[in-house]
C-alpha cells in the first residue's frame, strides 16, 4: 500500500491510500492530463508527488507527500480526512 498525504491551503489535509505504484501512477496521470507535466516510467513516488503539486481541480496550493502507514494513522488521528483507507483499523478511520 502507498499512502499519500495531500495538504490543501485553507482546507487541511487528506490521506489517500493506493494499492501500488501503478494505481498511484494512474491517478497522477489523470490529474495531470490537462497540464504540460508527464509521468515517466523512471519517476519515483516522490517524483510523482512533486509533479502533482498545485495541480488538479479547484483553487489553492496543494502539496503531496509520500508517507508511511504509521504516519498515515497519526495524520488521521490528528484530523486528516481518510480516503480509501479501508486497510487501516476502523478506529483510525474516524469510525469510533
Q: What can you see in these coordinates?
A:
The protein has 96 residues and is an alpha+beta fold. It has 3 helices and 4 strands; from the N terminus they run ββααβαβ. The protein has a 4-stranded mixed β-sheet with strand order 3-1-2-4. Helix 1 packs parallel to helix 2. It is globular and about 35 Å long. It starts with a strand and ends in a 13-residue tail after the last strand.
Helix and strand arrangement:
Elements: E1 2-8, E2 12-18, H1 21-31, H2 45-52, E3 62-67, H3 69-77, E4 81-83
Parallel strand pairs: 2-4
Antiparallel strand pairs: 1-2, 1-3
| Amount of helix | 25-40%
Terminal residue distance = 23 Å
Overall, the morphology is globular
Q: How would you write the strand order of the largest sheet?
A: 3-1-2-4
CA-based gyration radius: 13 Å
Kindly name the structural category.
Answer: alpha+beta
Q: Average pLDDT across residues?
A: 84
What's the multimeric state?
A: single chain
Total of helices = 3
Helix and strand succession?
Answer: EEHHEHE
Q: In total, how many beta strands?
A: 4
Which residue ranges are poorly predicted, with pLDDT under 50 across at least 5 consecutive positions? none
Strand coverage percent: 15-25%
Main sheet characteristics: 4 strands, mixed
Amino acid at each position: 500500500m502507498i499512502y499519500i498525504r495531500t495538504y490543501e491551503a485553507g482546507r487541511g489535509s487528506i490521506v489517500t491510500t493506493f494499492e501500488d505504484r501503478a494505481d498511484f501512477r494512474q491517478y497522477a496521470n489523470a490529474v495531470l492530463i490537462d497540464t504540460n507535466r508527464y509521468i515517466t516510467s523512471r519517476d519515483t513516488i516522490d517524483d510523482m508527488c512533486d509533479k502533482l503539486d498545485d495541480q488538479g481541480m479547484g483553487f489553492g496550493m496543494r502539496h503531496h507527500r509520500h508517507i508511511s502507514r504509521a504516519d498515515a494513522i497519526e495524520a488521521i488521528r490528528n484530523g486528516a480526512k481518510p480516503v480509501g483507507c479501508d486497510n487501516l483499523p476502523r478506529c483510525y478511520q474516524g469510525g469510533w
